[in-house]
TrEMBL record:
Belongs to the mitochondrion-specific ribosomal protein mS23 family. The keyword Ribonucleoprotein applies. InterPro entries: mS23_dom. It comes from Lotus japonicus (Lotus corniculatus var. japonicus). This is Small ribosomal subunit protein mS23. It comes from the Eukaryota. It is found in: Mitochondrion. Keywords: Mitochondrion, Ribonucleoprotein, Ribosomal protein.
Length: 187
């Protein structure tokens, strides 16, 4: 509908000109002093990118298992490894190191930190075993296992929830009635 395009003044002019509406009292005053028009945003909204986003993507190409860490939490107390890697690369580049060297240094530091965390947890488990205690929970868990632990209660709930048992019985009855309709030769 082309008559709906434009601002209030142009739409009203079109309606009056097409005799679809009587001329309002305010039209002449508004034509003499039209309202201010504000520029519109472009058709496409630009995505917000941070300087380190390029290196975050490169990190995920090299370490796809880290994708499950939340990269959005860049202001958290414990930012995800991808952000730390990218910020370290930017820091090294500011000191005049080339991009390739900065990435290799940041990669080496990341792998060393990851190895140190694994060794520390291994030592914690050994100490707990020597003391005869249960080992502590992993302070550096796999993000996939964290997600699965959150979902576990919902998965187990399906075995014990009586409402779900009723739904299963209804579905089985529907399937049985559907199958019996074919056996009876109704078709």
């Amino acid at each position: 509908m082309s008559f709906m395009k434009g601002d209030l003044l142009s739409r009203t002019r079109k309606l009056v000109k097409g005799l679809a509406k009587a001329e309002p009292v305010w039209l002449k005053a508004m034509e003499q002093a039209p309202p201010a028009t504000f520029p519109r945003a472009g058709d496409k909204i630009q995505t917000i990118t941070l300087p380190e986003d390029v290196y975050v993507k490169k990190f995920y190409k090299k370490y796809p298992e880290s994708k499950y860490h939340d990269p959005i939490k860049f202001c958290a107390f414990d930012p995800p490894p991808s952000r730390l890697f990218a910020l370290r690369v930017l820091e090294l580049k500011e000191h005049g190191i080339s991009e390739e060297q900065a990435m290799s240094v940041a990669d080496t530091e990341y792998r060393a930190e990851k190895k140190a965390k694994k060794q520390a947890y291994k030592r914690l488990k050994e100490i707990a075993h020597l003391q005869g205690k249960r080992p502590p929970p992993n302070p550096y868990p796999n993000p996939i296992k964290e997600i699965q632990a959150e979902e576990r209660k919902y998965v187990r709930d399906r075995f014990f929830n009586p409402k779900i048992h009723e739904i299963v019985k209804q579905k089985k009855a529907e399937a049985e009635s559907f199958r019996s309709g074919f056996r009876g030769g109704d078709w």
